[in-house]
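User: Here's a protein and a ligand (nicotinamide-adenine-dinucleotide). What would the complex look like?
Assistant: Let me lay out the input and then the predicted complex.
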Amino acid sequence: MAKLGSDLAGKAALVTGGGSGIGLAICRALAEHGVRVAVADLDAQAAEKAAGSLSPAGMAVSLDVRLRASVEAGFAAALAALGGLDMLVANAGVSTMNRAVDLTDEEWDHNFDVNARGVFLTNQAAARYFLREGRRGVICNTASLAAKVGAPLLAHYSASKFAVLGWTQALARELAPHGIRVNAVCPGFVRTSMQEREVAWEAKLRGMEPEQVRREYVAQTPLSRIEEPEDIAGLVVFLLSDAARFMTGQGINVTGGVYMG
Ligand code: NAD
């Protein structure tokens, strides 16, 4: 039997939010499997640095997933440089934390613009390209544990991530007749800059020390540690590969057992 992920060698992928955290770990894992990677990020410097650190080196794409024109320009640049595209990882995301009763319009819009609209625009750009070219492309979206269970202080974020799973299922059904698969991953408490910000916000909102918040994360995790970005990257490689050829429309939990539904 072929080694898992060996079919990915020589293919091309665009990863949004690839400049840091989970996205960067995904870019590294894909490059290790011989994938030519376009590292797409709002933070152009982070994208350049990440792309340069990959082996083989990736290409950097400066793109804002909230804006159709920016997404279209970013995809055009990646397509031209990579000579086509086989996979999209729509991973860029943001969070803010607040009690639902105190949430502002701006917080709601910010989370939905990046997390939900960003997935819509990037998935649509990839789907249009795959259909136009008759490619059996693959899409993997980064949802969240908060897409499976409502997360306190993250009601707006949770709602935007539930939207990602609804979109993923519907798109998977529409594209299945064309041999295009669409799945999502649902990470738990992952050690990234997003988590650093969330720990500080949560500690302040609940009148706790940041270390207490982290201890609570671990206490909720049956596998008993903070999740690392690499824990998700392996699952994404699997979902993009031929080993997952009969999987579509799924939102796979990778949380150390925090959520078992
Ligand atoms: P991160 O903040 O480390 O990385 C997010 C990346 O997305 C950054 O490089 C940022 O510049 C980029 N980005 C933000 N807005 C963008 C935009 N408009 N256009 C393009 N790029 C943009 O966060 P992370 O923890 O690595 O998060 C990655 C994904 O994983 C997000 O979708 C997040 O919601 C999800 N997630 C994270 C956790 C966690 O605990 N860290 C848990 C579940 C899900």
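Summary: Strands lie at 12-16, 36-41, 59-62, 87-90, 138-142, 181-187, 251-254.
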